Amino acid sequence: MLNIVLFGPPGAGKGTQSQKIIEKYKLQHLATGDMLRAAIREQSPIGKEAQKYIDKGQLVPDEMVINLIAKELENHHDVPGFVFDGFPRTTVQAKKLDEMLEAKNAPIKMMLALEVEYDELIARLLNRGKMSDRTDDQDESIIRGRLDIYNKTTLPVMDYYKAQGKYRGVNGMGTIDEIFGRICEVIDNEM
Ligand code: AMP
């Protein structure tokens, strides 16, 4: 199985690049942010709970996203692999993901980490906030708070995969197609 963690700060382009990766390599996209927003739209109990955190720019509790991913892994048996987008965001999540994949005998093959300059991230997120109804992208102080949480809580996940020899940095500056080209080069190299 080709299981990929697509990693990077908010605004790095994970969602955009995930779409292109799943199309080219026929993989299953698992994006916890998308799942949580769907739950919010449905106003399910999980959605209502998640909204409290998301609106403030905080991470939702580990257990909540781990359960969502566990369910999705069960729902998709015959896929050639998964692209994990926005998950794991903590080392607790990363360890749990390894356990779940171990049970399926299908470990993470690589972490692709999109690297984008801080000012560019702020500009992209503010722009996305203008064009979508994502409330967490409309307020610059919430955006900066999310980037702080990324630096403090999520960056250690990079070291977790580095220690396993799975970290692959990708320059995330430039056009969508330029970045996708760099991603494909890394993936093709590993296949
Ligand atoms: P995203 O669309 O990936 O930027 O996620 C939007 C928001 O959903 C984040 O700011 C978090 O509040 C929440 N979220 C998404 N994925 C996770 C995760 N793996 N762990 C904790 N919170 C998450």
Give the CA-CA distance, first to last residue: 10 Å
Average of pLDDT? 97
The CATH superfamily appears as P-loop containing nucleotide triphosphate hydrolases
Bound molecules: adenosine monophosphate
β-strand amount: 5-15%
The CATH first-level class comes to: Alpha Beta
CA-based gyration radius: 16 Å
Order of helices and strands: EHEHHHEHEHHHEH
- Kindly report the spatial arrangement of strands forming the biggest sheet: 2-3-1-4-5
Number of helices: 9
CATH architectural category: 3-Layer(aba) Sandwich
Shape: globular
Extended strand count: 5
Structural category: alpha/beta
The description of the largest β-sheet is: 5 strands, parallel
Helix amount: 55-70%
| Poorly predicted runs of 5 or more residues | none
The CATH topology corresponds to Rossmann fold
- For the record, the count of structural domains works out to 1
Characterise this structure.
- By secondary structure, this protein is α/β, with parallel strands linked by helices.
- It has a single domain, classed as P-loop containing nucleotide triphosphate hydrolases (Rossmann fold), CATH 3.40.50.300.
- Helix content is 60%, strand content 12%.
- Strands 2-3-1-4-5 form a 5-stranded parallel beta sheet.
- It is globular.
- The model has no long low-confidence stretch (mean pLDDT 97).
- The protein binds adenosine monophosphate.
- The site of adenosine monophosphate has 16 residues, from helix 2 and helix 3.
